Amino acid sequence: MKKKLPAILFVAVFLLVCAVPSLGFLAFGPAKAGANERLAAKPQLIERDGGINSAYLSQLSEYFAGHFFLRQEMISANNAVTALLGASAEEDVILGSGGWLYYAETLPGYTGTERLSDAELRAAAKNLSLMQEYCEASGADFLFTIAPNKNSLYPGNMPDYGAAAAERDAQRLLALCGGMNIDCLDLFKVFEAQDEVLYFAHDSHWNSQGAALAADSINAAFGRESAYFDGDFSASVPHTGDLFEMLYPAGKDKETDPQYSPAIELEYEGSGVRPDSISIVAHGGGEGRLLAYRDSFGNNLYPYLADGFETARFSRATSYDLTGAGSVDCVLIELVERNIDYLVQNVPVMPAPERAVPSVQKGGEVSVIRSEGGKAPEGCVLVEGSLGEIAGEVYIMCENVAYEAFLQQDGGFAAYIPADAGLCGIIADGVYFDVK
User: Residue 410 above 80 pLDDT?
Assistant: First the structure.
């Protein structure tokens, strides 16, 4: 019996350790999600119609797998051990040297392995030109800028993936925009001119001081003055990087964020406003009105911009609604480098511009979809279709009027045209197609 006791104790301890996640779940409740996780919701045994949920056990298993006791601590411990071996256990995080972390989604752009085609970049630039034309006709200044990926500015801590791309899609797009007289701000040059590092080591974004530099540059491009970047950033606050939280959800990040002093005071419309809110309306101490479409890089950016306007509206929507351009002074489109393909994936909400009918030759037929309601401007419908690769402009013909369409990926096109316009055909690259 004495010889069996160590084995029995070992088995007992092993079973007890295995039971900790379940016992802790029962005693302390479900663990919370970490970082940007979207975990399975708690399943219901009885469906809304009163029937039994036949998938209850499998759903319960999925729910428990994401909420068991000490889940975040176990993930952090596993990832820390894996990091000691020089690898990242989180597919969205790249381990760099010196403790630096990079977002894995930026790797294709960094290496140039998934470049946008020339046609896609031309389409993106054309779409920006249409947006600028509409905003300026509505009386608002227009500006487009790209927030650089961290490894585009600070590649020194990246692992060796071979030679980085000599020219990235962002530079190609900015060059096209310059040739089309689109008002763009090149933040790559702005940040490269600074000696200090203005991005977080454990986060994919710029820090508050970097956001101040971007804000000063945006204001200057709009013909406005600000000097936030030259302000006092001697104080700092704790900051948990998004990449750090992905890798170590139960860890304590030692990185800090420099803070601008004196603190910017804004008045907000509504309650519960957060830096990552989908919509933010803020009132600063300046003059004029701003409409800004931004992404997560705007979390640190928006207070500086709002401070210089009487009213500033910020939106994280990916479909840019420009119908309010007539009620503002400035329209800003800020888009992170890794997502510039959004420009050919989403249809900006604005009436399509009228054009003179071009001379054409007869082609074949094309199918289109006509949809009403939703995001359509008042009195308009959305018409969209696809014609394969398109080299030039696309026009939607309605009797004797041509409306220029936005260009989409894979030869798609889309435009909001008057609801009462009689749709006749599509002109693409000088060829007329009847509508089926």
Answer: yes
CA distances from 432 to 236, 425, 435 (A): 61, 7, 10
> Is it the case that residue 20 has pLDDT exceeding 60?
no
- Determine the length of the chain: 436
Q: Assign 1 to helix, strand or coil.
A: coil
34/292 Cα distance (integer angstroms) = 29
d(CA 343, CA 337): 11
User: CA-to-CA distance for 249 and 243, rounded, in angstroms?
Assistant: 10
Distance, first Cα to last Cα, the chain = 87
> How high is the pLDDT of residue 139?
97
- HEC states along 245-309? HHHCCCCCCCCEEEEEECCCCCEECCCCCCCCCCEEEEECCCCCEEEEECCCCHHHHHHHHHHCC
Query: Tokens representing 135?
Result: 């905003």
417 three-state secondary structure? strand
Beta strands in 284-386 (DSSP E): 289-293, 311-315, 330-336, 354-355, 361-366, 368-371, 380-386
CB-CB neighbours of 209 under 10 Å: 23
The pLDDT of residue 51 is: 78
Looking at the predicted structure, is the pLDDT value of residue 16 above 80?
no
Query: How is 44-87 classified by DSSP, letter by letter?
Result: -SB-TTS-B-TTHHHHHHHHHHHH-TTHHHHHHHHHHHHHHTT-
Both tokens assigned to 144: 């487009």
Average pLDDT of span 140-151: 98
Q: Shortest CA distance to 344 belongs to which of 381, 376, 375, 390? A: 390
pLDDT in tens, 98-132: 999 999 999 999 999 889 999 999 999 999 999 99
Q: Is 14 helix (H, G, I), strand (E, B) or coil?
A: helix
> Cα(151)–Cα(277) distance, rounded to whole angstroms?
26
Strands 361-366 and 431-435: parallel
Kindly state the tokens that stand for 106: 């930026």
Instruction: Give the list of residues 6+ apart from residue 266 with CB closer than 8 angstroms, or none.
Output: 282, 283, 284, 303, 306, 307
Q: Return d(Cα 414, Cα 352) in angstroms, integer.
A: 9
